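User: Structure tokens for this complex, please. No commentary.
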Amino acid sequence: MSDQNQILEDLSTSDYKYGFVTNIEQEFAPKGLSEDIVRFISTKKEEPEWMLEWRLKAFREWQKMEEPEWANVHFPKIDFQDIIYYAAPKVKKELNSLDEVDPELLKTFEKLGISLEEQKRLSGVAMDIVVDSVSVKTTFQKTLKEKGIIFCSMSDAIKNHPDLVKKYIGTVVPIKDNFFAALNSAVFSDGSFCYIPKGIKCPMELSTYFRINAAGSGQFERTLLVVDEGGYASYLEGCTAPQRDENQLHAAVVELVAMDDAEIKYSTVQNWYPGDKDGKGGVYNFVTKRGMCKGKNSKISWTQVETGSAITWKYPSCILAGDNSIGEFYSVAVTNHFQQADTGTKMIHIGKNTKSRIVSKGISIGKSQNTYRGLVKVHKKAENARNFSQCDSLLMGNRCGAHTFPYIEVDNRSAKVEHEATTSKISEDILFYCQQRGIDSEQAVAMIVNGFCKEVMDNLPMEFAVEARKLLNISLEGSVG
Amino acid sequence: MLKINNLKAGIAGKEILKGLNLEVNAGEVHAIMGPNGTGKSTLGNVLSGKDGYDVSEGSALLEGVELLELSPEERAQLGLFLAFQYPVEIPGVSNANFLKASINEIRKSKGQNPISAPEFLKLLREKMELVEMQKDFISRSVNVGFSGGEKKRNEILQMAMLNPKLAILDETDSGLDIDALRIVANGVNKLRTNDNAFIIITHYQRLLDYIVPDFVHVMYDGRIVKSGDKSLALELEEKGYDWIKEEVEAL
Amino acid sequence: MTTIIDTSIYSEAFDNVLNQKALSEGILQKKQKALQQFEQLGIPNMKNEEWKNTYLAKYLKKGFQPGLVKKDLSKTETIAEILPSLTENINRIVIIDGLFSQELSQIHPSIQYNIFSTSHCWSEDIQNANQIFSSLTDEKKQSLTSLNTALSQDGVFIEVVEGGSAHVELLIVQTGSDIISMPRNIIQVGKNAYLNIAEQHILIEGHSMTNMVAEIVMEENAKIEWVKIQDAGDQYHLIDSSYVSQKENSRYHCTTLSLTGDLLRNQQYIQIAGEQAHADLGGIYILENQQQADNIIVIEHQVPNTTSNQLYKGILDGSSTGVFNGKIIVVEDAQKTDAYQSNKNILLSDDAAVFTRPQLEIYADDVKCSHGATSSQIEDYESFYLRSRGIGKELSKALLMFAFVADVVEEIENTTLKEWVKSRISTKLKIDL
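Assistant:
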């Protein structure tokens, strides 16, 4: 038993490996939020008038709203006037090759384990990189262009594809949806935009890397992904932030739209700085992610591995409007030290013969609190809806918490909805069995946790799975990096 | 007793029975054999009226009455019994209550009075002996916590209690050890009379060592493609089904 | 949707009720404090998480009001005729419109237990009853419970002494007045003592609303088996809240059978405060028409080595609604907790709806907690099995519904209570075996 305690002790004191600061020349907006700041951001980004109007509308709505308090997370009130809403690396002109990228930045990516060059060559992943609020580099543009695929930063999309942006932005997550979505709509500075035309299966993984760098700044990126009839896209999203003592705010919005027979696979590995082992610092991650299965036979699948952030508030959801559409949510959330996560999903069944599947694995370590919150709603007209949810929690250490709050609302008798959940600790029997077979306890714990998360990990694209597994082990292990 | 004429039926638009003919007379035992997926179980299900099957053509007369137009319970009340391959568990409903409900509904359909409690218990005890059921069986819930063998024995017990004219045994032998097999077969043999008939659906010849059939049919691709006496079963056991497939495909 | 209800009528009612009887200072203080708490909390609306799917104002608008209930002996004979026939050796407690009926109750004297009316406890200063009063409800901050604490005039106090046992039939009779009746019951089961209660509700005529609260204290090794049958017709409205505190090795088992009623809301707040203690909560709701049944359960495991089990099954027809809101809380260091909760529903009609929220809130690591919830229909293959045995469609369906809820019934240990529940379900489902 003492052996095990030692391991848990090690696990819960291991450090954040991505917490370095990059010294890149930055450009800031003054602290605080007002209509002037919204205008400043819009001007900085050389946006058209309609975009500014949209932002101002969102800002006015936001002013009327109150910060939500229902989530099972606790933190001091955020002073929204003490945040820098715009911080960008000083990029003088459009970059055409990697050689033109700030060498400091390139180093950053290498530290992150993502050499752009290598990524480009080996895995064929097209990547958009957002540092603080601005997209600095999108790779593989040419290859994608040949297929008619648009993959660019949100600012570029607003300039070059205004019709598409206008048509879809705010349709899945309306301005008024919630406090943080409204805030994001007012001040978002960049993000990724992607459009897959009819019948096109995107031949490579699309990827965005987000990094908060500047101190005292918030990151508000906005992602919009539209897959037209019969199209397919697999999208990867990675996040890191440097180690800082104060809390940084991240309030992103992701909107997905899948038309008839379209499929979107959206994977996230979230590793924002979680704060130190005393709970100091760390990112507040308040994200609204939602996918709309608009067309018949469409499918949206969310996979997330969440190991970072001091506080996570995030419910990637699917609105299953099209007949026969499918929504999936696979999640691993690890919390350590004083981290708090309140995460889960919403599956809204509206169309006929819609199906959803939820697999959520929560691991609580140290003094952290890990909450699953999910809604499965079957509307009256949603004939033959099917849902299966499995939520498992693993507790390591006796000062952490694991909570499960599923909401099931069924308004149609042909629905079949099943929810199962378990909470347990790593069984001493299994540990002993492993040890008896010569496996040391640290490795055994890693093995058991990996097994616990397998169903979710298996859903990640290959390139990502390796990295996610590494991250998972880092969150778990003390000595092994 | 049973006359099936050009029966065509399927599920979800896929035709499984493709024009099946079969005649069974009182006093006879017919075995239906054949490889997996040829429609053996479908035949049992369609005859007893399971939902989800579409009958597109043909007829199935039990003593001159068209079965295919009746509800499952009406067919059962006429004297058709299906021993399920996978019997259903009914928690909270005791075997005694279940059988009593069943017997009384059948009696009601014939205009008879419900069975009296002593009469029912006497009958149940007698039939329980036949399949060597433990005493506590009466109060246990239907099939709940039963082993595979117990479930199959329970099917035979129900058959004995309901005394059907025609019983279809759907792979009753699957998953049975040799003792259970003997008990099941023994039950069937004791219930055989000149007035009733049996259709035994099976994959293996093994059961037919114990229940000797008058006729053996081979089903393939939704039809009966070969019929013979019990020696056909032995031949199949020895040579497998491939030669039948070849014969059929050669046609 | 969120109608604001003026709470001043409640304060007025309070003055009326209090003027009627001399209460000791202690009781009076508790009642005043509760009224303040109620005024603070207000009538729950749908913004309140626990009332999200229950539109209480809709029911209150039918004319139900707080007020002073006056004893009306002229009805005693009529009521006597309606009551179920008396079983020997069982203590019958009859509560009419929230008032203990001395005339219709039959209590067999025994050294094993004491049964008094709550008003008697208050006026005669019965120490243990008065100590328990409001001790378990106070901090839970349930506004309707606070209202009961403030306005209740009577109820029953049952004390089973150490090593004793008592069998009780509890009849909650409503004559159909517009005044919301507020029975307040206090139960104390001593060391190694046993209590079983068969509770049912009877509505004489018209419509009525009952806001009943029980505080239940269980000493070491105590055991309670309680069956509640709610079948008083569709003009009946019930909010029934039980607050339980369990000491070492005690066993609390409560089974609720909700059959008819416009609103049947069952709230159980259980504190498991002694090691090896166990709570078992079962519920069956078989509903149709506009009926709504809520089951709100909060079980708090406060010490190590305790167990709990929640098993709720619902069958919903017509435009009925089923709400399940079950919560397991395992506090820090309550290791080796083993808790389970399950809510399964069958929807029989297009207009029925189910809202289920099984929740786990866990702050200790060495625990085994799990829950499950489902909503489905009766499976065709099950129904086919029965029909292939000659059993008609309707009876097949009824038998399968019976089978669906059977495990809740099977959990009841006391055979008399079990048979009672079984027969009521059979009657409801029109099964005659």
